[in-house]
Structure formats: C-alpha cells, structure tokens
Amino acid sequence: MPMLQGQMMDAPLLISSLLRHAEQYHGDTEIVSRTVEGSIHRYGYADAARRARQLANALKRLGVQPGDRVATLAWNGYRHFELYYAVSGIGAVMHTVNPRLFAEQIAWIINDAEDTVLCFDLTFAPLVESIAAKCPSVKHWVALTDRAHMPAQPIPNLIAYEEWIAAETDRYDWPEFDERSACTLCYTSGTTGNPKGVLYSHRSMLLHTFSASLPDVFGASARDCILPVVPMFHVNAWAIPYIAPMVGAKLVFPGPSLDGASLYELFETEGVTFSAGVPTVWQGLLQYLQTHKLRLTTLRKCVIGGSACPPALMQTFERDYGVKIHHAWGMTELSPLGTFNTLKKKHLALSKEEQFAIEVKQGRPPFGVQLKIVDADGRELPRDGKAFGDLLVKGYWVIDRYYRATESPLRDGWFPTGDVGTLDPDGYLQITDRSKDVIKSGGEWISSIDLENVACAHPAVAQAAVIGVRHPKWDERPLLIIVKKPGQEVSREELLALYPGKVAKWWIPDDVVFVSELPMTATGKISKLRLREIFKDHKLPTA
Ligand code: ADP
C-alpha cells in the first residue's frame, strides 16, 4: 500500500555507535580489569575507543573481511571489550567461544563457524595448542598479551596482541552498512546434540541494548559502576558490554577470578553498585561474606538469572546486605533478555510478603518481547498464574533461524523456548522447569524448581537439586540432592519435614542424598543432565 514516508534522518543501528558515544561523552569514565596475571588495569572509554580503532586497522591488515568470523577464548577484560567493538565495528562477526566446554566441542564449534582468526587469553594457551591442528579455518592465533608474556606452547602463526595493534594508527572511520548485518555469533551449549549458533544482527543487538537499559530492566546509569560476573562468552555477558557504553557507566571486569574473595575485593575497592550472574556465583559470594562476617558497602542491586534464583538467596541478600536482587529469565536465542522482575506501582501498596511472592517469579517482558504459553496441541493457555504450558516467544531480538540451519525452529512465527511456565494477568512469568527437567509422576508434572526452593531455605543447605528418578509404579519420582554448608548438619528427615504444607503431598521427594558438590555446566549452572546419569540406578525406598 502506498505510504507517506517519514522525513527523519535514516542511520543504521550499529554497534560502533555505542563506543563512539562513550568516547565522546564519557571518555574519562573508567574500565577496570583484573588481568589474567592478577594485576589491575585501568583506562577510560576514550582509550578503549582509540585502541579499538587500532585493532580495527590491524584486523583489516590481516585480511579480515566483512562477514568473516573472529573468535575469542577469553575472560571478561579490556582486550575482550576492544574485540567486541573492533570486530563488529568493521563488519566482521565477533564469535565468543565458551572455553569451559570440552576441547572437542570447542574445535567442533570453531569449525562450524569457520573462524579465521582466534584471540585467546594466556590461560587458554594449552587448550589452543591442543586444538590448533584440528581447526584448519583459523589462519591466525592471537595471544591477548604483550611480547614479553607470549606463551611457550608451539602455536602456528602466533601474534602478540599488543605488538599487533601498536603497529597501527588510531585513525579509522567506522563504516556504515546495513543494520541487519551479523555482528556477533554465540553457540548454545547443546546439552543434547551439537551446539547451535545464534547469529545476532547489529539492529537486534542495539534494540536489545536500548530495552535492557530501561529503568524497569537493568536501569543502569552514568552514576553506576557495573561488574558483570556473567562471562563475555555467555550470551554477550547479558549485554552489559553494550549497556555500559550506552549509558556511560563505569565497567569492572573480573578476569578469571570469580571466587567470593576476588569478587568481594573488586566490589569494595572499585565501588561497584550493580552486578549480574548465575545463582551459583552468588551462593559462593554469600558463603564468603557469611564466613568472614563482611559487609557490602556500595553494591545496591544484582541481576540473577540463567537458572532459577532460590527465594532464600534473594531474601538473605536483601535482609542481611541491603542488596536488591532482580530475577531475570532469558536464553542465548533471546540475546538473552526475555523477562526482568521489577514491581509495578500498584504493587507498592502490598505487604512485603505479597511483594516477595511476585519478586520470586522470573519477571515480566520488557517492550520488544511477547510471551505466550500453550498446551500440547498449541492452544493458548489462560494468563491466570496457574495454568502452565510450553513457553513461546517472539520479538525484535529473538532468533529466527540457527546459523547454517535450513529449517526454521519457529511455530507459527513464535520461538518455542523449551521452558514450561505460567503467566499471570500482569505479565509475570514463572518458570516451572525446562521441559526436559520436569518430573513426570503418574502422568502429572512436578516442578523441580519449586522443590529446590523449599530445600534452599534451610540454613544448613548450600545447594539443592531435584531430579526425576525411575520408579516402577509412577514412572518417575523426585530425588532431592543436597550439598551442606561447611561445618553444618541437617538430616534427611529434617529436610523432608520442610515440605508438608508448602507443596502437594504427592510432590514430596521420595529420597534425599547428600553429596560434596554438584556437577556444573559450562555456563555455571547445575547440570541436571549429569545428575540424571549419576543417579540413574538410584534405588528409591518407595520403589
Ligand atoms: P545454557 O543452557 O548454555 O546455560 P542459556 O543461557 O541460553 O544456555 O540457557 C537458557 C535457559 O536457562 C532457559 O531456557 C531456561 O531453561 C534457563 N533459565 C534462564 N534463566 C532462568 C531463570 N531465571 N529461572 C529458571 N530458568 C532459567
């Protein structure tokens, strides 16, 4: 139909514009990094932008073309940040590889992406040595260090990052191109089958960054100091490397040290106000704070997502440390933001308990994301906070197609997330489970997350996981797996006594086992898949 065209400037939404903005208006705002060597590096957005332009020239000289994939195996740090901008800025594709995967999986991913350059932190030199011969597409390997610290491993065509970019001028005009071009590539961890590539566009990433910065989402500002604990190889560190330059926030990169002591030191010395990561990281920090009787003097809010945040963890941070925890849900296919939990005005009149009952949910979608839940036949279910079904999503930063895939993953234009949950009339999502983690007992579903949350509220419990174990009569019954806090005791009977009155009687776990630690996935979540393997022959007392 013939339309009347608007008459406003038409400029593509490009990643490079974020760093240009930060350089011009927040040039002296700091980016602080703990390096792999352990020292602290600090500079401002203007320095980062200058070095990103040198890096852009260096990439061009190496022959990197628009659309080429440049991979990283790196922690959160300033050189990784420079790569985020230089690679996408020249029109190439930034491919963040998760170094916690097995070497064979890493090589598989690099080959699938056909990366031509791979930049790595010194930590990963042995890994790079072991995979180099298996990655024929990679023509250049770049060690993210200076000449004096080059790794001893024999790695072909090895470049020293500092020397490489020092040879270039910092004059470079970021090119303008179609905003639908790819900027970044990130693989799902592929708990079943091979990992799948998700290819973000400049447009989707910029819209995601705008929305994630809104007050009811990350709500970051030029008065914030943000420390992303979530790695830059885990869905773009939840967009923090883009949000911070957009709003002019100080950035603190923790490098490889994500233990309680190292994080606490950075939080306090740098005045961190805001942080984000998966629940296991905060459980570790909490134990450190409790053991050493420490206080957090500047941190005021944290985003917890990636897996369900136990309500007890949220409560302890808020009550004992004055840190507000915001629960969020997302996934690689969503860039990752799907929902974020903040209250509405009408909720302010509610009691603390009523507010908390909302805040433990995974939150509501920001502008740009639409959610619905459907039954097994694809019929939409009511948004009453009770009916639960398969969660479908669509929006400006939701996947349309996996990298190299010929078939669309969509159902009638909606992306099936593989999660099961409820939606309430106000739009708040509550995840019941991943569909493969749901416990199917006698034809009905039991939520493993609900059962874990009850156990986590016990003061002697450090971590809890619930899985379904085969049962001759009921198909599956829940098994509660517990890691106790150091020096604390709790019995099987005490734990099982927590459940009556909190969940339906038939949901109560059939058995409890105590372990010294839980297996983790490459993104720092409890690996239910591995737990199901370990306990596949567990004999339930009820069997
Ligand atoms: P990986 O499986 O590699 O960690 P993702 O980060 O993409 O990859 O994981 C996304 C999945 O994590 C979601 O589909 C969901 O099952 C789970 N998840 C993310 N956030 C939450 C949350 N707040 N509560 C429960 N589950 C979550």
Automatic annotation (TrEMBL):
One Gene Ontology term from the biological process aspect of the record: fatty acid metabolic process
Superkingdom to which the source organism belongs: Bacteria
Family matches, as InterPro entries: AMP-bd_C, AMP-bd_C_sf, AMP-binding_CS, AMP-dep_synth/lig_dom, ANL_N_sf
Signal sequence bounds: none
Keywords from the UniProt entry: Fatty acid metabolism, Ligase, Lipid metabolism
Keyword DNA damage: no
Any one GO MF annotation of this record: ligase activity
PANTHER family named among the record's database cross-references: ACYL-ACTIVATING ENZYME, BUTANOATE--COA LIGASE AAE1-RELATED
Family according to the record: Belongs to the ATP-dependent AMP-binding enzyme family.
Protein name stated in the entry: Fatty-acyl-CoA synthase
